[in-house]
């Protein structure tokens, strides 16, 4: 390999090192194939070519690259991840003495299974993460609350909170262990894209990169987030709206470790307190854009007071068991956590990170797949961060896309063919759209402070708290065990 | 020549299932129509183009002749049907859409049976590496391309020149399929050239050929002893009539009207017997079932409509020779 690289350098092509290696890799594959062919491939050897170009090396893009490299039917595919983030050049675990980052994700058991399959979960376990087995959701009117417990669905935990950078690092480490890894990362960005047409009879999309290089790929995967360049270049339209809300996120400190996920609905939106390991928790607080600006510039002590006010005694009383719940108790059988009393969330002592604010919206691509192109993760759907489901939907995309591609390879299909890609789109839309509707519905129900609606909401909490089959369904759905919200 | 035309007609037949021009002109030949109405047993049926006065066919090669005792199984009308819609082979929404939808299921049957027979790793992305496979009636290459991606050295033949041109152009655009050897010829031509293959596959062709027995003999002759023969077709049942002709051609318009003739369908029993006469013993059979809710095809035990059969060419080459000769003699006599 080193010798070959030198040869290439001598040839004077103004290519980057990584590009040379990848070109070598592809030309090597081509020449081995040519051995079998009678009339030979008509592909120039110097041309950079791959089977799957993943634009965007974030959590979802890396997970796809790693997943394709793990499965026996897809590991032969030549994969390139296009992203110029310096993070992708890092090696080894992140230092644990750093403060937890404020960008975190709640990964569900379904996502954990994906990570285990691709060998990334062991790396997460070596870094900071926090399992939680309880969840408490209540609202400021004091009319109702729900406590979920992993025992209700026979599990040890409901989910796990992990910093996004830990997820990325673990996926990168799993990818680095795969064969031919050095050929997979391209530290550059997408400038423009030309799709194959009937005229040139080519199967390859041409990607023009910002470093001046080009890459030919059979399948281009847009994993480049909610402002996806790939989606734009492919001409895929989106449907969506912005909520009149912003979210602020930050990391806070307690006096002891927190093992429960807390969410309280306030007049302007929910505030969530998620355990992130050690004595830290993460806050995702939805409020009006004005309030968000105000909170962002607040001095830290004042901010801590405001958080404790929002999580504990501000806005209204603590909810208590009511006669309604006693009645429901006598009618229905009871899940174990039905009897659990409302608890007060742990007190926040201080803020240990910057306070960040970002606007909220919902965006959904009208198509996830066109010929030669698929979208995954936020490029296909951006949701409200209400239940930490956004990234799980993205990992769901990854696992379904990898499976669909493996099935295609097993029957000798062309991985860029639309009939195959549409199968992925069908599967993911049936999973993503109900979840998006549920989250959007929640958002709408909780963004209005109007007393009849408050009572309705409280009834909803009671139903969720005291009707065991409903409760089990809600938990399994949120954990990613089942595809549809109710009774599937 | 006759053999050639036979092969072509078979191929063209399978393709004609999907062709739209059939809608406009289902049966240009009146003789052809009347004959096809006779629900005779296959060995007794004779739709040989030679006896057919409608030889004003666009494909002149399809005229009947006999070479080395292998009669052409081509049917010129069927060949014409498929030539007319060749341009649309690779349009996933075009007349060949049902074939595109069905193809992964057909390939998965071939994959599993051939992996077992040739002891290949079913988890390999290229399990057919090095196997020489013949696709008889390859059309635009809907089956040949997947076989090549699975590692096989593929030869695709078809009686329709246009199909071969389309197939060549399409395969050349992808390095993984550009090695496929496409030729416009019939199975009988290949028999004359004394070519042998590890596996001979002919999907949705036999119901379009003039003489299924001759066709199967050619396929058998092209397989090496111990090699595989795979054939898929449609059963001659009332359900097949209702679904593949009434529903698919007249109600849903999936297939051009006139694509299929019920009387030319072959039952699994008939196919097994014919293949036996061609020294091929059928080992496995599976049905294809369409789920109208999901739009997916899947393999099943139900062989009452679409089915696929996998057989092995008998390995004693001596007995194979004698048998072939004997059968040729009977054919001449009849």
Automatic annotation (TrEMBL), chain A:
Name the coenzymes or cofactors required: FAD
Q: What class of enzyme is it?
A: oxidoreductase
Q: How does it sit in the membrane?
A: Peripheral membrane protein
In which pathway does this enzyme or protein participate?
Answer: Cofactor biosynthesis; ubiquinone biosynthesis
Report one GO cellular component. Answer: extrinsic component of mitochondrial inner membrane
- Where is it located? Mitochondrion inner membrane
Task: List its EC numbers.
Answer: 1.14.15.45, 1.14.15.46
Domain (FAD-binding) ranges? 49-310, 352-430
The residues forming the signal peptide are: none
HAMAP family (UniProt xref): COQ6_monooxygenase
Which protein family is named in the record? Answer: Belongs to the UbiH/COQ6 family.
Quaternary structure and partners: Component of a multi-subunit COQ enzyme complex.
Give the protein's biological function.
Answer: FAD-dependent monooxygenase required for two non-consecutive steps during ubiquinone biosynthesis. Required for the C5-ring hydroxylation during ubiquinone biosynthesis by catalyzing the hydroxylation of 4-hydroxy-3-(all-trans-polyprenyl)benzoic acid to 3,4-dihydroxy-5-(all-trans-polyprenyl)benzoic acid. Also acts downstream of coq4, for the C1-hydroxylation during ubiquinone biosynthesis by catalyzing the hydroxylation of 2-methoxy-6-(all-trans-polyprenyl)phenol to 2-methoxy-6-(all-trans-polyprenyl)benzene-1,4-diol.
Q: PANTHER family this protein is in? A: UBIQUINONE BIOSYNTHESIS MONOOXYGENASE COQ6, MITOCHONDRIAL
Protein name per its UniProtKB record:
Ubiquinone biosynthesis monooxygenase COQ6, mitochondrial
Organism from which the protein derives: Carex littledalei
In the UniProt record, what gene is named as encoding this protein?
A: COQ6
TrEMBL record, chain B:
Query: Which compartment or compartments is the protein found in?
Result: Mitochondrion inner membrane
Instruction: Fetch the InterPro entries from UniProt.
Output: SAM-dependent_MTases_sf, UbiG_MeTrfase
**Which cofactors must be present for this protein to function?**
Mg(2+)
The keyword S-adenosyl-L-methionine appears for this protein: yes
Q: Name one GO biological process term.
A: methylation
Per the record, the pathway is: Cofactor biosynthesis; ubiquinone biosynthesis
Subunit (UniProt) = Component of a multi-subunit COQ enzyme complex.
**PANTHER family on file:** METHYLTRANSFERASE, UBIQUINONE BIOSYNTHESIS O-METHYLTRANSFERASE, MITOCHONDRIAL
Function of the molecule: O-methyltransferase required for two non-consecutive steps during ubiquinone biosynthesis. Catalyzes the 2 O-methylation of 3,4-dihydroxy-5-(all-trans-polyprenyl)benzoic acid into 4-hydroxy-3-methoxy-5-(all-trans-polyprenyl)benzoic acid. Also catalyzes the last step of ubiquinone biosynthesis by mediating methylation of 3-demethylubiquinone into ubiquinone. Also able to mediate the methylation of 3-demethylubiquinol into ubiquinol.
The molecule here is called Ubiquinone biosynthesis O-methyltransferase, mitochondrial
Question: Gene that codes for this?
Answer: COQ3
